[in-house]
Each structure stands twice: as C-alpha cells, then as structure tokens.
Design goal:
alpha/beta; Rossmann fold; 7-stranded mixed β-sheet; two-stranded parallel sheet; 32% strand; binds S-adenosylmethionine
C-alpha cells in the first residue's frame, strides 16, 4: 500500500554554505570585532579533555578540524601537542585563522575546503573534530556526506570528536518527505548580533541567518547516533549537555559524541 506522506519543500540557495559563511565572516571580521579568537569554549574544552583521556590520544597524533572557522579550537588542540590541520569553506575565516596561528607561533595549517568533499588522501589522520559546524547543516544527505568524509580521512583505529547543538525532539519526521529545492535568489533573512571590539565596546553587525527557515541542523541524540552508525562509526559515547555562553543567554542544548573507526 502506498504511504500517505506529507511534503515539505525547503528552498536552499545555490552555493548556500559558501555564500552564507563567507558573507558572515566578511561582515563580522570586517567590522573589526574580536570574534572567537580568544580560547576554546569552556563546555567544549571539558568534553574535549574527557575525549582525549577516554581514547588515550597521545601527543604527536595528527588531527583535522572540519569547519575550523577563525581557528580557536584547532590552535588550542595544537597547543596540547597534537599536529593539526583546519579546513573551512570561508577564505576570510581561513585567512584570519592563519594570522592567529602565526601570532601564537603554532605550527598549524588552515586551508580552504568543503567538508562535504575534500581532496584529502584517505586514512590521513588519527582523529577528526567537528565543533559547531555540523549543526549548521540541515540537509540529511549532506550530513551523511560529511560523516562519511570524516570516516574516509581517518586511519583505521582513528577517533571522531563531535560537539554540536541538539534538539530534544526528533527532527526527521518519517511520515514527511523533505524536498530540497535549489533556488538562485538570496532570500535568507538578515540577523543582527552584538560583537565586541578590541576596546571592549559592543557593536551590532548584520549578516545572513545560518539556515533557511524550515530546515534545522539540530538532531536528537537518537538521530545523531543513527547517522554516525550509518557512516560506519562505532559510538563510544554520545550524550546531551546544556551550554551556557553568558548569564544573559538561555541554556543551549548540545550533544557530544565520541566515535571510532574500527581497525
Ligand atoms: C558556527 S561556525 C563554527 C566555527 C568553529 N568550529 C568554532 O567553533 O569557532 C561553523 C563553521 O562551519 C563552516 N562551514 C560551513 N559549511 C562548510 C563546508 N561545507 N565546508 C567547510 N566548512 C564549512 C563555516 O564557514 C563556519 O566557520
């Protein structure tokens, strides 16, 4: 019997990931604000430390951060003795990350690339990291592509660390068919956020939103485990957490996953 599925059409502009993120970084960094340049977020840092001791990562191990942005996580991990590469779709973010690495005298390489399909040789790294760059991806086929890419570039016996926003509810409604339709126009609403200048003054910067309406990059823990296993990973740990960035911002649901590529 034919299933009665409802249809949801989500419109995504062409070159969406490049256009949104490059425009966003140009506006934020072009305003002169100090953006994600200081240190790794404390919630991420405590999960990262737990990961390092659980999987027993030894100094000298090689790692890649996908969606490395302005480089704060890659540089922090490099400072712990790991050989790091960062990859991001925004040339402006990559340039800033390379400047920060130079300033910190960290031997890190940041390159422009697409986390859905890189030209990295297979089995190149001991570990891979995605911090807040998977929750910007809503389309399930692209999330699957990225997780398969993580799997591909890891050596057998390699580890994956993920820290991303989550949803309490399931997003993937199996009775619903999500139709992703590419459009040419740039129709993503503008957001205004406050950023800090080097002198501590707060300024407002407008940039395009991360996600077309009706498309969410958040997943429930169950959905997250399923997508990891589909990509071939064995899950070592996957849990929900609540992140508090500042007293004025309500807590944000996040999920953390440690996974393993079998030898
Ligand atoms: C919310 S930011 C997080 C940046 C960084 N991981 C951090 O914690 O500061 C998401 C990042 O994902 C990057 N990104 C989005 N789509 C991408 C893609 N297809 N390939 C590589 N990077 C991408 C963006 O440019 C952005 O730097």
């Amino acid at each position: 019997m034919k299933q009665n599925r409802s249809k949801r059409i989500v419109k995504v502009p062409e070159d969406y990931y490049y256009r949104v993120h490059e425009t966003r970084y140009k506006k934020i960094l072009g305003s002169g604000s100090v953006y994600r340049q200081k240190k790794m977020n404390s919630n991420v840092l405590s999960s990262w430390k737990e990961f390092v001791s659980m999987v027993n990562l030894v100094p000298g191990a090689s790692g890649i951060e996908f969606g490395s942005g302005t480089g704060v996580n890659t540089i922090t991990i490099s400072q712990q003795g790991f050989q790091m590469t960062g990859i991001d779709i925004s040339p402006t973010a990559v340039q800033k990350a390379n400047e920060l690495a130079k300033k910190n005298e960290e031997p890190v390489k940041f390159v422009v690339g697409d986390m859905f399909a890189t030209n990295i040789y297979p089995e190149s790294f001991d570990f891979a990291v995605n911090i807040w760059a998977l929750h910007v991806v809503g389309e399930q086929h692209l999330r699957d592509k990225h997780l398969s890419e993580c799997y591909r570039v890891l050596k057998p016996g390699g580890y994956l660390f993920l820290h991303n926003e989550s949803s309490e509810k399931d997003i993937l409604n199996l009775n619903e068919e999500v139709v992703i339709e590419e459009v040419k126009e740039w129709n993503i609403p503008e957001l205004t956020n406050k950023f800090e200048m080097p002198n501590g003054e707060k300024i407002q910067v407008c940039f395009p939103d991360h996600m077309p309406s009706d498309l969410s990059g958040r997943r429930s823990l169950g959905e997250h485990k399923d997508e990891l296993e589909k990509a071939g990973f064995r899950i070592l740990k996957c849990y929900g957490d609540e992140m508090h960035c500042s007293p004025s911002i309500p807590g944000n649901q996040v999920m953390v996953a440690f996974a393993y590529k079998e030898k």
